[in-house]
Amino acid sequence: MSATPTSKAEDLVRRLRGTVLPAVATPMDPGGVVDFGALRGYAERIAAERIGGVAVWAHTGRGLHLSESDRLQVLRTWREAVQGPIVAGAGVPRSARASNLREAWDATVAMAVQAADLGADAVMVYPLAQFAARPAGQAEAVRLHERVAEESGLPVLGFFLHGEAGGYPYPPDLIRLLLALPSAAGVKLATLDRAMACQDAIGAARSSGKLAITGEDRMFGPSLMWGADSALVGIAAARVSLTGAVLGAWNAGDYGAFVRASGRLDRFAEATFRDPIEGYVQRMLWAGVWEGLIPEHAAHDPYGPELPVGERESVIACLEELAKEPD
Questions:
Q1: Lowest mean pLDDT among 34-38, 61-65, 160-164
Q2: Stretch 19-43: mean pLDDT, rounded?
Q3: Which of 38, 73, 104, 154 has the fewest CB atoms within 10 Å distance of its CB?
Q4: Percent of the chain scored above 70 by pLDDT?
Q5: Beta strands at 122-125 and 20-22: parallel, antiparallel or unpaired
Q6: β-strands 211-214, 230-233: how paired?
Q7: What letters, b where the CB count within 10 A reaches 16 and e where it falls short, cover 279-297?
Q8: d(CA 217, CA 265)
Q9: pTM, 2 dp
Q10: For residue range 215-274, what is the model confidence (pLDDT) as tens digits?
């Protein structure tokens, strides 16, 4: 008898609790052409780190901007490199002609089915911001997650994504409803800088027994203290060890090491996750070049804003200072 989304969700909760999943970047040239040679090298390096798995087609990897053929090849490349779970984002690709909500649903489900066909272990459902203004929006959001699980055969993760990245704030009631789904493994929280919203969301998730997954790059340490129990973060697209050290120290109950590791990660986050916030993808790519993960010619984010002169130097200066200190 084949595993159901419910049994897969239960297994995923066990496998991911206490681990870091980098939301990985996608190496590209300035015109948005994916460099698959660079991607293979990057994937091999990330897979060698102490990670619980990876997240592909997420915001950091510009998953909704990729062409269908590139998107499929990106997942194939990561599936070949990574032994652990792969979580794939599923939403409405920028190329999709989704003129109404039903077409947006269909595009999201189709992306999830593709992910399943290519060996993904779970789907993280991009929020459809249209739900926020609709009287039945919460019920519709729950039904979308149900349909994704039914048609893909995979467990689902909710995705509380801040509005600056195209999402909307999930109220605690919606988080409870989503996590009551047997096929739901957890919810990722990326509130950006909204501490109360993050705390309330973690509180709503706590009683479910499902994962409260922090995506809080600028509030990483605090989100663990508030009750998050795993991580799926763009800040781990480079220098994975900085993020892993914080979670590892917290899990071990070594609070002195936790404070030190949090301070180091916070300094890196301050250099990379700052206004304009959509520039974080480019900043993380620069960090990847510095670390030797990505070649210079493939470290471009054509979908982000133009960044001020001197920003790259600030990122590199931060990394060089951190490199002088003991881990």
A1: 160-164
A2: 98
A3: 73
A4: 99
A5: unpaired
A6: parallel
A7: bbbbbbbbbbbbeebbeee
A8: 9
A9: 0.96
A10: 999 999 999 999 999 999 999 999 999 999 999 999 999 999 999 999 999 999 999 999
Instruction: Quote the percentage of the chain above a pLDDT of 90.
Output: 87
Q: Which structure tokens are listed for 228? A: 């998050």
The pLDDT, as a whole number, for residue 98 is 77
For the cut 90, the answer to whether the pLDDT of residue 99 exceeds it is: no
Tokens coding 238:
């480079």
Instruction: Look up tokens 């998730």; give the residue.
Output: 205
Which residues, including other chains, have CB under 8 Å from residue 100's CB and lie 6 or more apart? none
Amino acid at 138: Q
Task: Read off the tokens for 48.
Answer: 């060698």
* Rounded-to-10 torsion of CA 147, 150, 154, 156: 30
Given a contact cutoff of 8 angstroms between Cβ atoms, the answer to whether 18 and 247 are in contact is yes
> With 70 as the cut, is the pLDDT of residue 1 above it?
no
List, in order, residues 6 or more apart from 33 with CB less than 8 Å away.
none
Average of per-residue pLDDT values in the chain: 95
Residue 327, CA distances (Å) to 149, 242, 286, 309 in order:
40, 8, 21, 30
Q: How many C-alpha atoms does 114 have within 13 Å on its Cβ side?
A: 24
**pLDDT reported for residue 97:** 79
What's the rounded Cα separation, in Å, for the pair 227 and 205?
9
The tokens of 269 are what? 């986050």
Read out DSSP for 230-273? EEEEGGGGS-HHHHHHHHHHHHHT-HHHHHHHHHHHHHHHHHHS
Percent composition of the chain: helix, strand, coil (DSSP 3-state, to 5): 50, 10, 35
Tokens encoding 188: 């990722």
Cβ neighbours, 10 Å, residue 245: 20
